[in-house]
What we know:
The complex is a heterodimer. Chain A is an alpha+beta fold. Chain A has three domains: 7-90, Acyl-CoA dehydrogenase/oxidase, N-terminal domain (Butyryl-Coa Dehydrogenase, subunit A, domain 1), CATH 1.10.540; 125-234, Beta Barrel (Butyryl-CoA Dehydrogenase, subunit A, domain 2), CATH 2.40.110; 248-379, Butyryl-CoA Dehydrogenase, subunit A, domain 3 (Up-down Bundle), CATH 1.20.140.10. Chain A contains eleven helices and seven strands. In chain A, the strands form two sheets. Chain A has a four-stranded antiparallel sheet with strand order 2-3-7-6, with no helix packed on it. In chain A, strands 1-4-5 form a three-stranded mixed sheet. In chain A, helix 7 packs parallel to helix 9 (313-335). Chain B folds into two domains: 7-165, Orthogonal Bundle (Butyryl-Coa Dehydrogenase, subunit A, domain 1); 171-328, Up-down Bundle (Butyryl-CoA Dehydrogenase, subunit A, domain 3). The radius of gyration of chain B is 20 Å and the shape is globular. The longest helix of chain B has 29 residues, at 171-199. The two termini of chain B are 25 Å apart. In chain B, helix 1 runs parallel beside helix 4 and helix 7 (171-199) runs parallel beside helix 9. By secondary structure, chain B is an alpha+beta fold. At the A-B interface, helix 1, helix 3, helix 7, helix 8 and helix 9 of A face helix 7, strand 9, helix 8, helix 9 and helix 11 of B.
Amino acid sequence: MDLRDTPEEAAFRAEVRAWIAANLPDELRGHRGGAARFEGRAMREWSRRLSDAGYSGLTWPREYGGAGAPYSHQAILFEEIARAEAPPHIGVIGLGMAGPTIMAHGTEEQKRRHLAKILSAEEIWCQGFSEPEAGSDLASLKTSAILDGDAFVVNGQKVWSSYAHIADFCILVARSDPNPPSKHQGMTYLIVDMHSPGVEVRPLRQITGEAEFNEIFFTDVRVPCENVLGEIGEGWSVAMTTLLHERGTLGFALTTSLEVAVRKLLALVRERNGHDPLVRDRVAREWIQLQALKYTNYRALTALMQTGIPGPEGSVSKLHYSESNQRLTKLALELHGPEAQLMDGETGGYWQYQQLRSRGNTIEAGTSEILRNIIAERVLGLPRSR
Amino acid sequence: MDFSFTDEQETLRREARAFLEERFPAERVAELADSDEGWDPASWRELAELGWLGVSIPEEAGGAGLGFIEEAVLLEELARALYPGPYFSTVALALPALSPEEQARVAAGEARWSAEVDGLVPDLGAVDWVVADGAAVRAQGHVLPTMDATRRLGRLAAEAERGASVGAIDRPRLLAALAAEAVGIAQRALEIGVEHARTRTQFGRPIGVYQAVSHSLADTYVETELARSLAYWAAWCVAEDDTQADVAGAAAKSFAADAAVAACERAIQVLGGIGFTWEHVLHRYYKRAQWIQSFAGFGAVLRADVARAVLEGGEAAELDGAALAAEVG
Ligand SMILES: Cc1cc2nc3c(=O)[nH]c(=O)nc-3n(C[C@H](O)[C@H](O)[C@H](O)COP(=O)(O)OP(=O)(O)OC[C@H]3O[C@@H](n4cnc5c(N)ncnc54)[C@H](O)[C@@H]3O)c2cc1C
């Protein structure tokens, strides 16, 4: 056990810190995130710079444009990004889900075509999993993909698809066998070009007032067979790879995001209510919760580096992060007193936005109830509830 | 960065668990806790022979020359077994205040110690000496009726004989030790709850299928893992004399103690009537969890320390990034 950086890690940290100081534009520091990221070119430009410096696919193999670095470097990079309050790379779904799934199941051609462009933010990806009738129970999805010559013909509707309005590609799970022996069979995982004829995207306005997620309608969309990811009919197991990465690699990103929130909260407390013992107690609690998340990720990281397999800590981190973030953002609003309602207050609606956005944290990427089911059944070995 | 135990440390944990499960099963702990003496003094010899009393004492002084991380492993396992005896008092509380000669006597199993904290002395009736106000005081006084009968508190008599002067107790180390114990308690409470939820049937199904039951156990798992991370972080800081030891100890103890209490409360609920009996071992874990919570500061007291560190102290400077920005230049 040694929680210090090794000399090699320390050198990498110094390099990253200096690089961020030299390259992060001021207007992006402390950016609140959300749909505003997609206005103008600044965020894409920043993502491309991250990528050019080799920081976006840090742990990806070199042959796919990554740096082949150990996971510890990924953790250090995220810590430094948090410290500088720099925004993360814009291609959340490409980097966190599509990329790792393509690496695990894709053909050489698919890897060559997409991975480098995901890293450079030239391609923005979205995830078409959820449907109106299939949310937590994803396997009950109905969107169909029927083989017709050299292509699958896709019909159906996806919903809550983040970034679909700006995405170039979609990772889509659809039913290729209308009468499968069981509902987990007969699905096929496809890479869909969002610019294909028959794809229609309708933005959905969210609780924050912004539209970041969308409905996607597919009408006779032809997807060439070369865009099947994994085997035909094996879509469910490919989708499980995506979800494993969604929750598995999420830990560091979540810690980063919570770390930024705690830093801002502490600054707010110092400025406004630094002497109120009740506030001090609550802010100390949030700081402790952040350390708990951080060191749980360190344990997960060490296990991952030693065994190569992500442990159950992913679900722990996601559950803990989402509830911490919800509590923390409410505390931040409370510190504003009656002005908490003002969207154009001195913090420019920052906390108002974060507080509302945080309600999505316990729903997206597996609801908290589903994560508790997973822990109960797969970690604790309790009987299945369904 | 490496946040894992070494093979030797894992072996120590396995051996400790095996020994404690064999020598201190729940029935024996209950018997001892309900006895007048409260523990089995013969067990001290066994701990000395296992080398557990001198884990962090240098080899020249008859110890193993290891560190606090190994001690934290043992404290966690001893708590998991609810070992009734003054290991915590001697090793976690008093040891750092003692001279090398006296530490050698501890390693050899020849002296048992405790310390006075907030006017109370844990295990007063089971030790020889007490660290109080910078002096060694003979363990003379009254053992008081204590909720947790496996770790009774006492008060020194005013006329208790004062001996040589000794050092001070090491607060971060004390807090880290309590956090490690809390993790052991929470883990055992979780196991008891899970075992029951798997086997107890009501309405024709094991109660673990009901989410009101399973989700409460999942919450215990999450909190126990978070507490574990904090406790090991604090243990490492203490072992390495890291500048964060103070704040890590306070953070870990406040969180882990609360997690252990909640773990026991959820387990009691999951067990139903049997969880409310004297006969079942669970109440003894609950009482130890509350003992840990109350000793050396409830959560709010420790969080006040954390607040000071992160709002005004060294942690604040670290968080400000001012120092770091200067470093990068
Ligand atoms: C901000 C945001 C972004 C999203 N982005 C995407 C995206 O990019 N791509 C995508 O495909 N999807 C996305 N989603 C959708 C998300 O994955 C689903 O909302 C989620 O899986 C829940 O599905 P649902 O909305 O249909 O709710 P339901 O599954 O109907 O759940 C409703 C409630 O019932 C509970 N529930 C359901 N089943 C159980 C059970 N077995 N036990 C206990 N409780 C249960 C749930 O926990 C929830 O509280 C996003 C969602 C949000 C909020």
